[in-house]
Design brief:
Helices cover about 15% and strands about 35% of the residues. The protein has 4 helices and 21 strands. It starts with 9 loop residues before the first helix and ends in an 11-residue tail after the last strand.
Length: about 350
């Protein structure tokens, strides 16, 4: 008598079950999904990096809205957490992450659930940006050199690891790890741009509140979004006036949601955390960037709270704050902010 199971010989069924774990592992290796990951939570270790925000790079991982990814970034010179050179310098990025069910006109909401230092060293440069000081002072500066710093996550401070500074032996600054770069594939002639630029797609924003617990809203220009992140910073003053922050590598955990077309009129990135609503403006001039940022915040308040333009003059003029986040790059980055606390007296409409 020949025994079968659903018309299949038992030996074939046994062989399939024996090989099933290897087949699952092979599939997960192809997608970047760790075989130990639970559904919706993906541990992704990058093996390649990109020096541009681009639609022309093969996605390193496909993920769905509401998925959470734990990954890592390398520093702006291309070194990882172990000090190994992984990529050429110039803000190499982790990504792109292909987000399923996203289309042009949608908005991608990226929430950073973890932003953690993964090594004890950082570097910056001994320099000033040309926008930060008069030429008479800039010309006194020698050729920029690297300056190493030590990062102490136990104390929460960074200190200079360079004995040549006579008066800075006891100088220390508070750690504030954040992403210098986050963005999607842009919409331009080649659908790509180098990773030290910034614009409506996000990019090299260098803003210290792009950190743990913040949500970054990005306009989507292409199917799949093509999300990138990188350029880890241990700390930075506003403007990044040395041309570098305290550059380092990071462990990042993030989750994504999609806001479908028609719900938000988003032309430039926005950020939200427990304290602020923040709108970003980028432009070659400070004046232009400030106007874009202010317009973004105005539109946000008018949409969520339905205030008139006349009412907005009273709300914004009495409460707005500005941060000049970046002046060392090709475009200036200005952030217009308003504290959520002052908006409690307004009715918010869903």
């Amino acid at each position: 008598m020949k025994y079968t199971f659903l018309g299949v010989h038992p030996f074939l069924v046994f062989y399939f079950l024996l090989c099933l774990p290897q087949l699952i592992q092979a599939q997960n290796s192809f997608t970047g999904l760790d075989s130990s990951s639970t559904p919706g939570h993906i541990n992704f270790t990058p093996t390649t990096f990109s020096n541009k925000f681009s639609l022309n790079v093969t996605p390193v991982l496909r993920m769905h809205p509401d998925d959470t990814v734990l990954t890592e970034t390398i520093d702006s010179r291309g070194f990882d957490k172990n000090g190994i050179k992984r990529q050429k310098g110039g803000n190499p990025l982790t990504g792109p992450f292909y987000i399923e069910n996203t289309s042009p006109g949608d908005v991608l909401a990226v929430t950073l659930t973890k932003v953690l230092l993964n090594r004890s060293t950082a570097f910056t440069t001994e320099s000033f940006s040309s926008r930060s000081l008069p030429k008479s002072i800039i010309h006194k500066m020698p050729k920029p050199r690297l300056v190493n710093w030590k990062l102490d996550t136990q104390s929460g401070f960074a200190t200079i690891d360079d004995t040549s500074y006579e008066h800075l032996h006891s100088f220390k600054v508070s750690l504030n790890p954040f992403l210098g770069c986050i963005g999607v594939a842009p919409a331009n002639k080649k659908n790509e741009i180098l990773s030290f630029f910034q614009g409506p797609y996000g990019g090299n924003l260098d803003f210290g509140r792009i950190t743990q617990s913040a949500t970054i809203y990005l306009p989507i220009f292409h199917e799949g979004s093509y999300l990138y992140m990188g350029d880890g910073h241990a700390c930075q003053g506003d403007g990044e006036i040395a041309g570098n922050a305290l550059e380092t590598s990071l462990d990042i955990e993030f989750t994504v949601k999609v806001i479908k077309k028609g719900f938000i009129n988003l032309t430039h990135p926005r950020i939200e955390d427990s304290t602020y609503l923040m709108a970003i403006g980028t432009d070659k001039s400070l004046d232009g960037a400030l106007k874009i940022a202010t317009s973004g915040l105005l539109e946000w308040l008018q949409t969520d709270y339905r205030i008139t333009l006349q009412e907005a003059t009273q709300v914004i003029s009495t409460t707005i704050e500005y941060t000049i986040a970046e002046i060392a790059d090709p475009e200036v980055v200005v952030v217009a902010k308003i504290k959520k606390e002052v908006l409690k007296g307004l009715k918010k409409y869903d």
